[in-house]
């Protein structure tokens, strides 16, 4: 049975210049925002923008496959754990040795960072109370990418409110961070940062948040419950999706399938400063050939069949926009940016 499927061109078909034009059009911009250094100094993403982005991100995290298997629990690399304090934020750095921990021909379907929150020490609470009670702290996890010049770039991975007066294990979804690390193919550990901030703007909420602390990777920290990275994987020999290309597939010689195709905003000169999140994304693209239709199903005309996107999904982003003389930070979704399924198309039609 043939059905007509209206397709919007996806990122796979564009050159970098065409991709830029598509992104600008999606955001209603006529040109790349012209930013000054002062626009990027002490840049803080507002909570409402961060929450909107995380909400869109979680909607996109649809589990494509079931039956995950536990690949292992990583307890990090023992060593000195750096904790940085400022007026509004506490930052704790974590490091995990990933090399050789993920089985060959497998896919990481989920990664979970587990942090043990220490019992509350009331001596760390502010002496002066506020008429507006504060019950939670905002805890966010960032992936840290070390640059060649020694600087660090961070990407927001997950964020949640943590009750200040409760202790115990707290879990964060860091699947995207592991995918970033795999994409970079570094032979170095994976670095994460945990940021602890007030649940709302104001000095009292910030002071309350400073009472929140997690166990560290430092061997001198004798508290039970070291940070853990739990990896769940699928053996692609057993559960591989028939719609995805295998690693050994040769472009143009395999049958129509979906191939990995990563796009890094950090590596695009026109995007690296004003698209703040994500650092990049797995866009996928369609590859391979299409066998001719049986004679009974052929239609009059050329009837050329090609492998193309038959289903796509949106990409959530956080970006900077110039509004007159000031800069705004906004969250939005780019539709049709991720290829979910490929199919053989004949003159705009898909065989389903």
TrEMBL record:
It comes from the Eukaryota. The keyword Phosphoprotein does not apply. GO terms for cellular component: extracellular space. One of its GO terms (biological process) is anterior/posterior axis specification. The keyword NADP does not apply. Pfam families: TGF_beta (PF00019), TGFb_propeptide (PF00688). CDD domains: TGF_beta_LEFTY1_2 (cd13758). Keywords: Disulfide bond, Growth factor, Secreted. Residues 246-345 form the TGF-beta family profile domain. SUPFAM superfamilies: Cystine-knot cytokines. It is found in: Secreted. GO terms for molecular function: cytokine activity; growth factor activity; transforming growth factor beta receptor binding. Belongs to the TGF-beta family. This is TGF-beta family profile domain-containing protein. It comes from Zosterops borbonicus.
């Amino acid at each position: 049975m043939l059905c007509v499927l209206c397709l919007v061109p996806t990122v796979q078909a564009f050159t970098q210049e065409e991709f830029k034009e598509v992104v600008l059009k999606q955001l209603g911009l006529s040109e790349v925002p012209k930013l000054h250094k002062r626009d990027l100094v002490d840049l803080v993403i507002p909570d409402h923008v961060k929450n909107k982005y995380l909400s869109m991100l979680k909607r996109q995290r649809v589990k494509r496959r079931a039956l995950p298997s536990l690949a292992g629990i990583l307890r990090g690399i023992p060593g000195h754990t750096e904790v940085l304090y400022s007026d509004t934020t506490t930052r704790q750095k974590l490091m995990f040795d990933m090399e050789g921990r993920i089985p060959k021909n497998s896919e990481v379907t989920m990664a979970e960072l587990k942090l043990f929150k220490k019992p509350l020490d009331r001596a760390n609470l502010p002496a002066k109370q506020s008429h507006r009670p504060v019950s939670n702290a905002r805890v966010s996890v960032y992936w840290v990418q070390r640059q060649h010049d020694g600087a660090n770039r961070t990407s927001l991975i997950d964020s949640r409110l943590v009750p200040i007066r409760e202790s115990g294990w707290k879990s964060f979804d860091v699947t995207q961070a592991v995918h970033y690390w795999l994409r970079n193919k570094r032979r170095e550990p994976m670095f994460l940062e945990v940021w602890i901030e007030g649940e709302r703007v104001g000095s009292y909420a910030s002071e309350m948040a400073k009472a929140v602390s997690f166990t560290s990777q430092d061997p001198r920290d004798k508290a039970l419950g070291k940070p853990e990275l739990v990896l769940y994987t699928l053996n692609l020999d057993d559960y591989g999706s028939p719609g995805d290309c295998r690693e050994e597939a040769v472009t143009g010689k395999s049958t129509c399938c979906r191939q990995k195709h990563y796009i890094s905003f950090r590596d695009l000169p026109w995007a690296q400063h004003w698209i703040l999140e994500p650092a990049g994304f797995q866009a996928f693209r369609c590859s391979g050939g299409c066998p001719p239709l049986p004679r009974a199903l052929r239609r009059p005309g050329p009837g050329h069949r090609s492998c193309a996107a038959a289903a796509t999904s949106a990409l959530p982003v956080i970006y900077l926009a110039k509004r007159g003389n000031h800069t705004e930070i906004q969250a939005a979704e780019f539709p049709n940016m991720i290829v979910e399924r490929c199919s053989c198309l004949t003159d705009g039609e898909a065989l389903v």
